[in-house]
Specification:
This protein is α/β, with parallel strands linked by helices and 363 residues long. It contains 12 helices and 7 strands. It has 2 domains: 228 residues, Spore Coat Polysaccharide Biosynthesis Protein SpsA, Chain A (Alpha-Beta Complex); 122 residues. Helix 11 runs antiparallel to helix 12.
Length: 363
């Protein structure tokens, strides 16, 4: 039997959802011609072990367990590249995406009606009534409006996480993709040249079956990461751009703390400055851990304490490099604002490099 379709399921703590979802996929597609690729980000609940147990009973199921890396987009790319099927689909493992749409999506691609089929939450005939999350629905609508401008694609739901395309198309586009965050469809559409022909199918977006949602407030920052990748990705690393954004926010925190302390707490500048530095570094560490390095996020009191100490030490080294370079250039006659900017850039690059390796690195 020809292997027509691989369904890639990126997972993080979805142990109880895998087996029922495979049953639903089998009901939709029949007994043969497909496989499920569970790409698990080393879940703490034993999702990978559960998927392996299922695979021993069902050869249509395969498992990739990733150690030391996280993120839906990168998991999807690994799944796309790990199958010999002619077509690949991406869907969530939490049962919010209806497998009953898979046959229609596959038939449309096989007939040449489109290059990619997208299950839409907002196309005519779709429903989000069971989702019962009006705040996220409004956020998705806002993000979709920006995404349409970014990609030029007339889609009702370019932020959808449920779609299907030819496997060779996905693999050809893979080197151009950032692999950061959740919204890989946006990256695929923006990277394709010529543009992909799209067909949307209305979807009834359901409630999660088991477990807790992985979409926290970092999703908004994740969308920002997608924008950065499209705007700056060919010039500077996206993660560095995010690191710099957090650093800029830290500068504001620094000045805010300094102003409060000098006007109402202490008139001693060095005390206020030292406190502001510590608060700003702590803020930067927290925000970078939560957002910039969400795929490597430190958890647990011990890891967070060591990470904070390492980050402060890194910033101290970067601060020394900043001052040294700026002082040297100013002494050579460079206009002082330019000398200061050069120092800031050197310090930022140094902090980013050391933090990436020694605070959020794996080795």
């Amino acid at each position: 039997m020809t292997l027509d379709l691989a369904i890639v399921l990126p997972t993080l703590n979805e142990r109880d959802n895998i087996a029922p979802l495979v049953e639903r996929i089998a009901d939709a597609l029949g007994p043969e011609g497909w496989e499920v690729l569970v790409v698990d980000d080393d879940s703490g609940d034993g999702t990978a072990d559960e998927a392996r147990a299922l695979a021993r009973r069902d050869r249509r199921v395969r498992v990739i367990q990733r150690i030391g890396r996280r993120g839906l987009a990168s998991a999807a790319i690994e799944g796309f590249c790990a199958t010999s099927a002619s077509f690949v689909a991406l869907m969530d493992a939490d049962h919010q995406h209806d497998p009953a749409l898979l046959p229609a999506m596959l038939a449309a691609l096989q007939a040449g009606e489109a290059d990619i089929c997208v299950a839409s939450r907002f196309a005519p005939g779709a429903s989000t009534a069971d989702w019962a999350a009006p705040e996220r629905e409004r956020l998705s609508g806002f993000a979709n409006a920006i995404a349409r401008r970014l990609t030029g694609a007339e889609l009702s739901d370019p932020m959808s996480g449920y779609f299907m395309l030819r496997a060779d198309t996905a693999r050809a586009l893979a080197p151009r993709l950032s692999g950061i965050g959740f919204k890989i469809l946006l990256d695929l559409l923006a990277s394709a040249d010529p543009p992909l022909r799209i067909k949307e199918l209305p979807m009834n977006f359901a409630r999660r079956r088991e477990g807790a949602s992985k979409l926290d407030r970092a999703v908004a920052f994740d969308f920002l990461a997608g924008l950065y990748e499209r705007i700056f990705g060919r010039v500077i690393p996206t993660r560095f751009a995010l690191f710099g954004t957090v650093g800029a926010a830290g500068v504001l925190v620094h000045y805010a703390v300094l102003g409060v302390l000098l006007t109402g707490v202490t008139a001693t500048f060095w005390k206020a400055q030292l406190t502001a530095v510590l608060v700003a570094m702590s803020f930067n560490f927290w925000l970078n851990n939560w957002l910039t390095y969400a795929d490597r996020r430190l958890t647990g009191a011990g890891a967070l304490a060591l990470g904070w100490i390492g980050f402060c030490a890194t910033c101290a080294v970067g601060g020394f490099a900043n001052v040294a370079v700026a002082t040297l250039l100013e002494g050579e006659g460079l206009f002082w604002p330019l000398a200061a900017l050069a120092g800031i850039l050197v310090g930022s690059v140094w902090n980013y490099a050391l933090s990436s390796r020694f605070v959020w690195g794996r080795f």
